[in-house]
């Protein structure tokens, strides 16, 4: 996923490109993204949602772009335990970075394994997953797996990914145009 932006004092243009490949994938599996690019068009500060978030006792002011969604599917020839990963630059290992003055929040929902609705579990690479929910926020270095009391096996795992880009007020203080690019990669692990 590649994110690029041109910033001006009142507006920004953002394009998000998706890159997918497999990591530790068994033969006979592939990953498919429902889109290769999410185009935010022009950011206009007055059109963005503003808010305040408290993280570890520090208050952050932000502007949020409209949330965009796309589906990701992992297909395998045989039944596998599948874990999806979204990798990229992070801020304090809690959110994905978007340039010097922003962050990207990724949320997954609508989990399906072999056309059956499932909960989603998240955890660090190699961690045992113990709890599922209908939706999960993806942290850098964490994977998402289909879950129903335990990690499930199947041939087709599908999730909807929601992407929300946040910018600080500082992002709109540039006098000249500036380009911001971030790359996020879609990966998966599959085991029999």
Automatic annotation (TrEMBL):
<keyword id="KW-0732">Signal</keyword>
<protein>
    <recommendedName>
        <fullName>Fimbrial protein</fullName>
    </recommendedName>
</protein>
<feature type="signal peptide">
    <location>
        <begin position="1"/>
        <end position="25"/>
    </location>
</feature>
